[in-house]
Amino acid sequence: MTDRPGLRDLELLHRRLEELRHHIGSSVDYLDRGRPSPEQEKAAWATITESTEKASSVCQELEHLVSVVRENNPALLDRWVDVHQAILREAKTEVECEASDYLDEGFTKTALFVINQEVEQWEEVRAGGRTYVIGNWYFLRNRRSIERKLFGF
After folding, report:
1. Full-prediction pTM beyond 0.70?
2. pLDDT, tens digit (0-9, with 9 covering 90-100), for 86-105
3. Cβ proximity of 100 and 94 under 8 Å
4. Are 33 and 81 in contact (CB under 8 A)?
5. H-type helices in 34-73, by residue range?
């Protein structure tokens, strides 16, 4: 990171935290539904513990960076929120279009609910009530490709 954090600094930390949190969730799902052997269960718990420790460290780093940006460069924080809002608008358009691969009506309704919820949460980031939002990758299938396009990395 630089002395003057930028959009890339914020977003790379955010993505790292999201990846860790989703990895933890997937590992817990595996333990709940995957019927692991005792050795596999032990390995999964070790992975969860390691990922949780890493996530805690990244979370602290992101919280600190957001705090610094909020105080010293609120326009950058607004830009970060604006890009995430644009990602969600594009995701919503994708879900709602007739050629969507979101064919199941229940899945579509849930995806739209998730998008609307995340839109509100990102506005809470802008207002100072939240530090970041962990997105729902399951219901927003093309989120990463939209992020790469709109962030440029």
Report:
1. yes
2. 999 999 998 888 666 656 77
3. yes
4. no
5. 38-72
